[in-house]
Amino acid sequence: MGIRVREHAVHANAPRPEGNSVLSKLAASAGRGRGSARRLTAAVLTAGLVAAGAAAGTGTAAADDGPQHRVGAAATLDGLKTFDRAVLRANGKSHPIPAGLFEMTVDGGGRLKTYCIDLHNPTQVQAKYLEAPGKQTSLAANRDAGKIRWILRNSFPQVDDLAVLAERAGTGPLTQKAAAAGTQVAIWRYSDGADVDALDPAAEKLADWLHEKARDDAEPAASLSLEPSTVAGRPGDRLGPVTVRTDADRVSLSPPADAAASGIRVTDAKGRPVASAVDGAEVYLEVPADAPDGSAALTAHAMTSVPVGRTLTSTTRSQAQILAGSSESTVSATAGATWAAKGAIPALSARKNCAAGGVDVTAVNAGDAPFTFELAGAEHTIPAGRSRTVTVPVGEDQPYDFTVTVPGGFSKSFKGTLDCRITGLAAPASSRASATESPVSRIAPASAGGSSAGLEGDLAATGGSGATPMITGIAIVLVVIGGAAVFFLRGNKPSPKE
DSSP of 271-335, one letter per residue? Predict the structure, then answer.
């Protein structure tokens, strides 16, 4: 496939490198003259990218050296905590599985309760999860994603008075286990197109009621984000603006770790120092005029409840989750900044985009001279005031870990796992009748075991056990690795909200 190139102008002080197309891309690249790895394996994709001044006399390009972009909550999966039995019909057989609520511990404090939206994948207890928009999960192509959010807002634990929930659904008395199982079963019918029922009669009645009543609900915004995630400019300027978006009453703002020595300040539009902000506030990073070419990061922190319906994806291969409840939790977001006294000013970012099966890597040039980078054996030049996004497909369920490096010692790393779709299923079926043809029905789950504490070991999508690092589950019979040789370059649009 031939390379396609488009570009668009960007403002030098406020580039918006994050693409909002439905395409996802992952860059596997090599440094000029350095020969980096260019292999896609079944487990890991590694890459390196080197950018340099394209003409004699241009300044050394400064790289976006901020930490990996993160929006909202980061948490660790503790396991399946409130659950009961269900049965999945597959291959003409019935398979008992556990179904219910997971719990996570938030970094910095807080607890999350989640349901699975990724039945075919295994669960890895103690896996790290990051808050993410639905477009970075299998919900990106799911026309029923809004119905899942309705279920979450109208069932347990959001409706924690079980007598009220039982009366609405006509189930008879409900226990927490039955309520959690019925809710999870209803979600699976929409998230995975699964032919699944709860074994407890009250739980099954709840699942049927939720499935029938569900209506489209909008996806909530991130608990905390900074927009755009990358800005660039000249020393002596205020780089930005960066807009704070949050549900919290107020967020604290942290300048770069070496701010005292470097003289970099967080300010408002008039140059007044700021240490905190509210939703909608615009802030800047003010860089001293004599600062050497470099990069830094602005970090925001807050305590707030993560909105119900937000999705969480693992940095390893562990099933995607959707938020059902949150305590007051620590959330954070980062925005990177780069600057150079003359020449090119490259700003670099990457983002998963599930509709294309990969990760977007965007290069923005906020300077007054072009810069060139080598990507998978081909050179690409970004003119001054322009941006481009490179698309490289990545295999479903494949981890990626790559670093973008520019001369001067600056680099930015991106890693994660592409977990974007129901195996072989373009969009989950709206009805249970059509769900029997889903790939879930072609994969036999491990049988569920039992213990004094409840169900263990299990179907990949639901099991949780602290005794083992990886819960055994559905055998994944299809691993798709994106063709590493296929690349796209496209023009970038203004940064989306996340």
Answer: S-B-SEE-TT-EEEEE--TTPPSEEEEEEEEEEEEPPTT-EEEESSS---EEEEEE-EEEEEEEE
